Each structure stands twice: as structure tokens, then as C-alpha cells.
């Protein structure tokens, strides 16, 4: 399904870590597992260009949040023309400018929610994208949480079923409330509970290591316990949400090796805010042996 070549994140020439080099002692190194595949988030990277031009600039990095400023046919063309694979994008989040961050947990908005999924499916169809992030929404008032949870699980069950017809996996992501105040799905452990409540095999986790580190921590344990339910991963350093380099508290070589050792074969979405330019910031990729410019 992946279009080749993937530039500039092609793992070509990347050296395998020596057995045991930065693996936790309880893991056994397996030679033939794939190395992580990195994808660029075109809503946070290459933002010095208009959206249409970011496709070319990223040249096959494969991740975008909200493509709705462009018609689905145009997004499909840009993906195809640039040899990209679209790893994941978000269903329409409601009125973003007014502070909305998804519709799935908002009681009374069910019809709009279903329409938003149908719209998203026109994009997944024309772009051959097989993962859709469905955002929960902002629910500030804690008294409304029980009703919001019922709405959320019912909407997700519907979306998982509907998207399964199109071979598109629905993913949900816990987002820390410092970055997104009032966001309904805050902790990765909450996301697991939602997954269990909905109990649909077309629903999975988007594990964003930046949010997870801030709001819950325990990245290793979570990965080791829940990897089979993780369909997409996103990365950014803490603090600052910048490049996944050595300038913060998350140890990327350790985590990427851990994912590798457990056989994670999905995409790792580069959803960070470059400290300067995207190109200059891609030095971190070289640190991981990738062919960044
Ligand atoms: O904010 C994040 O983190 C995301 O991954 C987005 O999908 C939502 O803005
Ligand atoms: Mg994210």
C-alpha cells in the first residue's frame, strides 16, 4: 500500500541497532522486524508554504490533519502526483475557529457527526487513505461527562461500522488538556476504556507520545501493554512540541527501538512544530540514520 520512494524519511541505509544496545533487558532483539516508518504532518510541517505546495515539499511523507480546504479530488491528485501515501487524517472537527475540536462526544450533534464522517470518507476514498482520526470534542462541564460518554461510544460504534464498509480504520487519540483545554478524551488509559466499551475491531488507538508523556507518562508500559490496539503513532518532544531530538525529556532512540523490537509496522507521524524551518529541523532524522536532506 505504501508508495515508493518515501522521501525524505526513507529508512534506506539505516544501520540496525546492535543487539541489546538500547533495548530494555526484558526484550529480545529480532533481526527481521521493520524499522519505524516516519510520516510528515502537513499541518505542522512545511507551513511556510500554501497547503497545495506542502505535498510536493514533503514528497511522500504521508500525513495530514485537515485537508478540507481542498476538494477531495484535488487532494487525491496531489497525493498521486507526488507519489505519497496518506497515512491518516482527521474527520471534520466542527467549527475549529470557534473552538470546536471534534463532534463525537457532543450530545445533540449526532446528525452533523454522521455527515462529517461521510464527508471524510469521500476523501479517504479518493486518496486511498485507510485511517481516520475521529476527534471527541470539547466538553468543559464535568456534569455533562456521563451523557457525553454515552454519545461518544454510540457515535464511535456507528463510525467504526460505517467506516469498516469502506475499509477505513477509525482511530481515537488522547490529547492533553494543556494544549487542548476541555478536550473530552484526555488520557491514553481513558482511550483504552473507550475502546473496551465500544468493542469494535474497526476502532483503534492513535498514540501521540507527546500528549501521552505530558498527561500520563509510562510510555514503555503503555506500548508493551497496548501495542496491538495502536494503529498510528505521533511524535514531538516534550517540552515545546518540537522535533523528536535530544532537546527534551523523551528518549527517542530508546522508544523507536522499543517499537521496532515489538514489531510495530505502522506509521510514526511527525506532528511537531519545527524550531526554525522544517528542512533545518530534519537533522533529527539523520540522527536515526534516515536520509533527510
Ligand atoms: O492535536 C493533535 O495531537 C492531533 O493529533 C490532531 O489530530 C488534533 O489536532
Ligand atoms: Mg496528535
TrEMBL record:
Its EC number is 5.3.1.22. One of its GO terms (molecular function) is hydroxypyruvate isomerase activity. Residues 67-287 form the Xylose isomerase-like TIM barrel domain. The keyword Isomerase applies. GO terms for biological process: glyoxylate metabolic process. InterPro entries: HyI-like, Sugar_Epim/Isomerase, Xyl_isomerase-like_sf, Xyl_isomerase-like_TIM-brl. SUPFAM superfamilies: Xylose isomerase-like. It is an enzyme of class 5 (isomerase). The active site is at residues 173, 271. The keyword Transit peptide does not apply. Keywords: Isomerase, Pyruvate. Belongs to the hyi family. This is Hydroxypyruvate isomerase.
